[in-house]
Design goal:
The chain has 458 residues and is α/β, with parallel strands linked by helices. It has two domains: 174 residues, Aspartate Aminotransferase, domain 1, CATH 3.90.1150; 251 residues, Aspartate Aminotransferase, domain 2, CATH 3.40.640.10. 40% of the residues lie in helices and 12% in strands. It is built from 16 helices and 14 strands. Strands 2-8-7-6-5 form a five-stranded mixed β-sheet, with helices on both faces. It has a three-stranded antiparallel β-sheet with strand order 9-12-11. A two-stranded parallel ribbon has the order 1-10. Strand 3, helix 5 and strand 4 form a beta-alpha-beta unit. Helix 1 runs antiparallel to helix 14. The longest helix is centred in the C-terminal third of the chain and has 20 residues.
Length: 458
């Protein structure tokens, strides 16, 4: 008989979480203006807002922190991280930053100017925000299959080479400072990009002399899917696949709070010394000296250890199978989610779940609030609120997919928690016909509004 699945770790420390009543949650979410970001953490039972910085570090990571060198310049922790990045990813130049959006801020400050065009695969919120803040334009070149949740395509994060080349020809290569490839592609449902697609994008980029940068928050999960789904990679290690992935890139930004399993940290890695030198100026202005960049030595040590642990198959197999377990439970309940299941989260298709709520009333946000009211579970809207307004017309942008993301922190929850999430969402699903109105905006920021938006019931 085949042995059942079991986690590849044992639990050494626990943190108490508090249950609440429906009446308490109704009061708290109203006080938060129906924005789940505005809830206090002790008002949440199971927190699926993000998998960013919310994972549980290992004993080896905690041990590495004790050896952190807190020297302002030239700390041994910096050189430890530099060596790990070179060995694992192949980049000669790197700059530490305090997190992923800081890495984008530094790199984009050195590379993007007003009027530029940045093609990519469904740019995430901070990426698009940093592009549009500089009065440039993000162009989505993701394959069409990504926008049909029922199609079981193995690599829905892929860029469509035809769309990409047409974009380059339309705007001219001179207007495109780089192509951004997000691995895995969060906005389309935590979906991976194939090695074949990376090669195709590299060839197109070389044809027009355009750099390719990877948004690499979940690169290890991407490599796991390549091993399982792409012919010829089934016998390769995750680290071997990662090395090939980055052979097709000129550089990368990394939010280390995801696949490096740390609570804070990020970096930029580059092959070009010229681009590195330009970026160092902004790193010093925005982040700190180039050998710490807003990070403590102990955090750089934990990050280096996390990069090693996060690219081991057993860890990834445990992590991604838990996500798939939740996805299968929801599918069995008849709830439509993005298929195949993503690496870090399950994405519930809100328009199919709540067909009576008008799109102008923020369908996915409505579903997120209902799930919180049901069981104190905090997810996040990946839909119209996140898509923000068109920077020129100031009208809402309505994305093809209106999703509720349930992001699973690494090494934090058990499958019993997954069962609670699934049943809670099923309870909302059973009463969905009675949910016919959503929310209106009371107050919003001019960019990346979803973090601080204030809403009222429609």
């Amino acid at each position: 008989m085949e042995l059942p699945f079991a986690e590849s770790y044992k639990i050494k420390m626990v943190e108490t979480i508090k249950k609440s009543t429906r009446e308490e949650r109704e009061k708290w979410i109203k006080e938060a203006n129906y924005n789940l970001f505005s809830l206090k953490s002790n008002q949440v039972f199971i927190d699926l807002l993000t998998d960013s910085g919310t994972g549980a570090m290992s004993d080896k990571q905690w041990s590495a922190m004790m050896l952190g060198d807190e020297s302002y310049a030239g700390a041994s922790s910096y050189y430890n991280l530099k060596s790990t990045i070179k060995d694992l990813l192949g980049f000669d130049y790197f700059l530490p930053t305090h997190q992923g959006r800081a890495a984008e801020n530094v790199l984009f400050s050195a590379t993007i100017k007003e009027g530029d065009i940045i093609p990519g695969n469904s740019h995430f919120d901070t990426t698009k925000g940093h592009i549009e803040f500089r009065k440039a334009k993000a162009v989505d070149c993701t394959i069409d299959e990504a926008f049909d949740t029922e199609i079981d395509h193995p690599f829905k994060g892929n860029i469509d080479p035809v769309k990409l080349e047409n974009t380059i020809k339309e705007y001219t290569p001179e207007k495109i400072p780089f192509i951004v490839l997000t691995v895995t592609c969060n906005t389309s449902g935590g979906q991976p990009v194939s090695i074949e697609n990376m090669r195709d994008i590299r060839n197109i980029a070389d044809k027009y002399n355009i750099p390719v940068y990877y948004d690499s928050a979940r690169f290890a999960e991407n490599a796991y899917f390549i091993k399982l789904r792409e012919k010829g990679y089934e016998n390769k290690t995750i680290k071997e696949i990662v090395k090939e992935m980055y052979s097709y890139a000129d550089g990368m930004t990394m939010s280390s709070k995801k696949d490096a399993i740390v609570n804070m940290g990020g970096f930029i890695a580059l092959k070009s010394e010229e681009t590195f030198k330009k970026a160092t100026v902004f790193n010093i202005v925005f982040e700190g000296f180039i050998t710490y960049g807003g990070m403590s030595g102990r955090d750089m040590n934990a990050l280096a250890q996390g990069l090693d642990e996060g690219t081991e198959f057993d860890y990834l197999d445990t992590r991604i199978k838990q996500v798939a377990y939740l996805g299968q439970r929801l599918t069995d309940f008849g709830i439509s989610v993005q298929k195949p299941f993503g690496g870090h989260a399950i994405f519930v298709e809100a328009k199919k779940f709540l067909p009576h709520v008008p799109k102008e009333q923020y369908i996915a946000q409505t579903l997120a609030v209902e799930l919180y009211l049901e069981a104190g579970i905090r997810g996040v809207e990946i839909g119209t609120l996140l898509a923000d307004r068109d920077p020129e017309t100031r009208e809402n942008r309505y994305p093809a997919l209106e999703l509720l993301r349930l992001a699973i922190p690494r090494r934090v929850y058990t499958n019993n928690h997954m069962d609670v999430i699934a049943v809670a969402l099923k309870n909302v699903f059973d009463r969905r016909d009675g949910i016919r109105t959503g929310f209106n905006i009371l107050e919003e920021a001019p960019i990346m509004r979803h973090f601080t938006v204030k809403l009222e019931k429609a």
